Amino acid sequence: MGIAAESVGEDVLRQHAEDAFAEELAALAAADERPRPPRWRLSPWAVATYLLGGTLPDGTVISPKYIGPRRIVEVAVTTLATDRALLLLGVPGTAKTWVSEHLAAAVCGDSTLLVQGTAGTPEEAIRYGWNYARLLAHGPSRAAMVAGPVMRAMSRGLVARVEELTRIPADVQDSLITILSEKTLPVPELNDEVQAVRGFNLIATANDRDRGVNELSSALRRRFNTVVLPLPATADAEVEIVGRRVAQLGSGLELPPVAGAEAELRRVVTVFRELRAGLTEDGRTRLKTPSGSLSTAEAISVVTGGLALAAHFGDGVLRSADVAAGILGAVVKDPVADTLVWREYLETAVRPRADWQDFYRACRDADPA
Ligand SMILES: Nc1ncnc2c1ncn2[C@@H]1O[C@H](COP(=O)(O)OP(=O)(O)OP(=O)(O)O)[C@@H](O)[C@H]1O
Ligand SMILES: [Mg+2]
């Protein structure tokens, strides 16, 4: 419960998964008769259903959160019921953070025990810090300790999350080794320790492209089961992912309804997939690939931005001009090299398509040169 959360209630800009989907989670818990691991809110089967979607015997519809291979979700969920921690690995925008939040919400009802990994993450963020006023007044004691998210998860038997694990300096990463192998956090200042309660586990995420920044030590890697989240396998799957998220985001932002989004959405996804693959959909034309990752997550923001433009400044229909600037911004990360890649794509792949002429013109207009 955060500061002023009571007075703000449902008006927060972004709800935690366990609040946004509280009804689904309650319906699943009520219908769930399978065995639950210690302190889990749901059985592994129900957690997987929460992530993948489904219909309960009483007719409650559980919306899919993750669209992708069922097996991946099953392995991720069962890992959390073992003594190994879970590492979600993948290129940017493959829903690693998203899946980690929903897993924590479904397993223990709390997705907020989060450490954001950066090059500057200190050991205290993973272990504990001190309330210096108390420390100076009364010396080191349990009461003077300020528990970090991982320590709180350990003492309450919950799931902790570490975002971007590989960005954390190696020596700080290593403070996780004892936690994950011995399930205890030594407190040398008190000659004491905090032992993990049953139910504790940890989900870390790491970006493929960051690998090598601070490669995981093999000692730490052995404590994790690694699950790789793939890019959407087909254009249809990616259209579905983008469509669902855009609809959710749009209703959260209370955008007025916009017509004709489907066609433009498919076009955005096609452009992203073609540039990512370096090949047109028909397999005939080779393309240069831009430097950025062109992730599904970026496709979601391009379409959401386009919808906002269409809703507030357009005629209520999503048109090419509404997404063109967003696409340009997503593709051109390096102003020189990517601009060339983009223009070549427009001329070789887009221009010849008879039904893409409005899109071609909109993209030409959006290009500042
Ligand atoms: N397969 C998928 N199923 C459902 N949603 C997806 C899928 N792939 C991407 N998304 C959506 O993409 C958005 C971004 O995902 P997220 O931020 O979790 O990516 P990430 O893998 O953590 O990226 P990064 O490496 O940049 O941190 C989320 O809103 C999520 O809904
Ligand atoms: Mg992430």
Automatic annotation (TrEMBL):
Residues in the signal sequence = none
What SUPFAM superfamilies does the database record attribute to this sequence? Answer: P-loop containing nucleoside triphosphate hydrolases (SSF52540)
ATPase dynein-related AAA domain sequence ranges:
86-224
The molecular function GO annotations come to:
ATP binding; ATP hydrolysis activity
Q: Which domain of life is it from?
A: Bacteria
Q: What is this protein called?
A: ATPase
What organism does the record attribute this protein to? Embleya hyalina
